[in-house]
Structures are given as C-alpha cells and as structure tokens.
Amino acid sequence: MRHPGTSLVYLIPYVLASIGDRLPQYRECSAQCYETQCVSHTPFLTEYDVNVFSKYLLLWTCPSDCDFKCRSHVAATRKSQGLPIVQFHGKWPFHRILGITEFFSTLFSLGNFWVNWINLINYHAIIQKVKASSRNKARIVMLNQYWVLLAVSVCGWLLSTIFHTRDVPVTETLDYLGAGAIIMANFNAISIRYFELFWVENQRKRICFQAGLLFVLCCHYIKLAHKWDYRYNMEYNCVIGLSASALWVLHSIRVHKLFGTPTHNTIQLQPYETKIRRKLRYLGKVRSRSIPLIPVFLNLFLTTSLSLELLDFAPIAGLLDSHSLWHLCTIFPPLIWYDWNLWDIEMVMATKSE
C-alpha cells in the first residue's frame, strides 16, 4: 500500500491497511518479537532467521526482521489451520532465501537485466561500426533511439532487482520510477520510427517531440513527489504503454505491406532474416512473410502475460507468485525484438542511398 510522501525517495511508506495487518496474532507476535529480540536481545522465531552476512548486507534491522518473521509465522499458522493466506502491508508473505525478500522476482528481474544488457552492448558496437563506415545520419539516429531504450531498460531492471531483493519504501519508489522511464523510452522509440522523425529533414520536429516527452515525464515525477497516487501512476503508465503497443502493431502491419514490394524486399535483408529465423527455429519454421508481423505477436504475448498480474495469487511454496511469472515472461521478447529492429532499419534504408 502507498500514501502521500514529502520526499521523492520516500514516496511509498508502509501503512497498516491489509487484512493481515489487523490480525491480533500478527500484532501480538510483532510486539513480542520486539520485546524479546530487539530489547532483550534474545532469539525469537529462529526458524525464520537469515545468516548474519545477508542480514547486514541487505540492511535487515531488528524491527524489520521482526515484521518479516511475524508475517511468515502467521501465514504458516493459518495455512496449517486450513485458513486462507492473507496479505500484509499490501503484499503477500514470502520465504526469504539468503535474506532476499522475493527470490524468483529477483532472479527473473536479473534475467531481464541481462538480456537488455547484452542487446545494449551489441547495439553500441553496431552504432560505432555504422559511424565509422557510413554517413547515413538517419540510420544512426534510429539506432540511438533503441540504444537509449536499452540503456533505460537496463537501469530500470536493475532497480527492479534491487527492489525485489529488499523491498523498502526507497527501493519500491525507484522501481516504479524506473518502470515509468522504460515505458516512456519505448513510446519515444516507436514514435520516432512510426512517424519517421529519424530523417535528417525532421530533426527539428524530433527535438521538439522528445523535449515534450521529457517534459511530460518530469511533470509526472514531480506530481508523484508532491503526492504519491498509485492509481494515477498506474493509469499514466497504461496510457503511455498502450499507446506504444498500438504504434508497434500499426507499424508492424505497415511494414508487412511494404515488405511485399520489390523495393523493400531486397537481398540486403537476408543476413538479418537468417538471424531472426535461427532464434525462432525452436518455434517451428518461420516464413519470410511472417517476419514483419513479429512485433504484433510479441505485443500479443506481453498483453496476454500481463493478465498474470490480475490473478494475484498467494506465492506457491512461499516463493513463486503471479508478479514473478510476469517478470519471467518479459525476458523473452527482447531476445528477438531488437534483432527485428535491425532488420526493420535495414529495410527502410534499402531504398535510400548510403
């Protein structure tokens, strides 16, 4: 749960609002743990202890350790009694592994970080190669849009990893802000591509457009800093995210039509098509005519996977919940999407003189 804050890094303090927070067992356990473990320095609920190294590394204070222990203890007790698991502080109770709050969400966030990092390195090398061998500024401009998206994604998924490792108000806030930045960077990239603002003659339009996006994002962050509103933040991200998805689908359909013309379906695309087909070979044979529609399938996959968030079930074995499964699903699209972007750039440049 979240409520207004006066500082950007403390936007999301915990509040007692969930069913679990009001349970007498939880409150009694918390009070007893504090008196026993924090005041008397006597071990309490040792079955939920973590090693000393993880405790200090991840900044588990005595009160926060008590809070986590009591949530786990009450959840285990209710499960043994056949009672439903309930949320505490707006979150499901998890088992800690090496002091990590949400182990699988952390692991899958790292997976997302890794695939975006690899793509970032590849794009950096490609951009340097293009700069050295070509004077086509439009190609470099479009490649830079995807490089920025990848750089923002790397930062965003790093913040997500930190948050799921240790969910405190600061890390939770940064996770939300990082996600918002990724969504805006994605909207920027597809807008520049769809409206063809990467051409040299559209430089002024591109600068004005991107300045506008940056202004909107800054205003969004300032509004959250003044008064955190979870619903507003969700609606804002949905509008930007769905707009980007719509542009990706429209762009993909347009590319599919262009690909059927001889001027766009050239031998220059062969190396890029081969790489895409090689990555998709486990899904079966992929025809050339289907390649332009890859973003449609990827957006459909992501939209379907997003429904996992709506399920919001208690963690399986105290470890695997719907949110972690969503993070698992988001690992796969970048494996092919950025190769498709290279193919797409090559196709649009095929009709232009290098």
UniProtKB/TrEMBL annotation:
Q: Which residues cross the membrane?
A: 103-125, 146-164, 176-195, 291-311, 323-343
**Organism annotation:** Candidozyma auris
Q: What does this protein do?
A: Involved in the lipid remodeling steps of GPI-anchor maturation.
**MF GO annotations:** hydrolase activity, acting on ester bonds
UniProt-recorded name of the protein: Post-GPI attachment to proteins factor 3
> Source taxonomy lineage?
Eukaryota, Fungi, Dikarya, Ascomycota, Saccharomycotina
Query: Its Gene Ontology biological processes?
Result: GPI anchor biosynthetic process
Q: How does it sit in the membrane?
A: Multi-pass membrane protein
Q: Which Pfam families match?
A: Per1
Q: Where is the signal peptide?
A: 1-17
